[in-house]
C-alpha cells in the first residue's frame, strides 16, 4: 500500500510522538522506514503498519500495529 525510507518519511519525531504516541521511537530521520500493508483474510482485510528507526546509539526499534478483520477498506 505505502512505503517510505529515510527523510522521505518526514520527521522521526513526528512519527514517534504524533502518529504512534511512543516517544521512545524517536530516532535518526535518515535511518527510518515505514511500510503499510494489507492482507485479505476470510473475515475481511487485515492491515499492518510497520515502523523501524535507528537511534544515535545504533539500537534499532520496530513498532508494529495490526488491525484484524476489517470489513471496510481503509483509505477509500
CATH architecture heading: Roll
At the fold tier of CATH, the topology name is: Nuclear Transport Factor 2, Chain: A
Q: Give start-end ranges of low-pLDDT stretches.
A: none
Helix content: 10-25%
What's the CATH first level? Alpha Beta
Number of domains: 1
Main sheet: strand order: 1-2-3-4
Number of strands: 4
Instruction: State the secondary-structure class.
Output: mainly beta
The gyration radius over C-alpha positions equals 14 Å
Outline of the structure:
This protein has one helix and four strands; from the N terminus they run E-H-E-E-E. It is mainly beta and 76 residues long.
Please describe what this structure looks like:
The structure is a single chain. The chain is built from 1 helix and 4 strands. It has 76 residues and is mainly beta. It has one domain: Nuclear Transport Factor 2, Chain: A, CATH 3.10.450. Strands 1-2-3-4 form a 4-stranded antiparallel β-sheet, with no helix packed on it. The chain is elongated, with a radius of gyration of 14 Å.
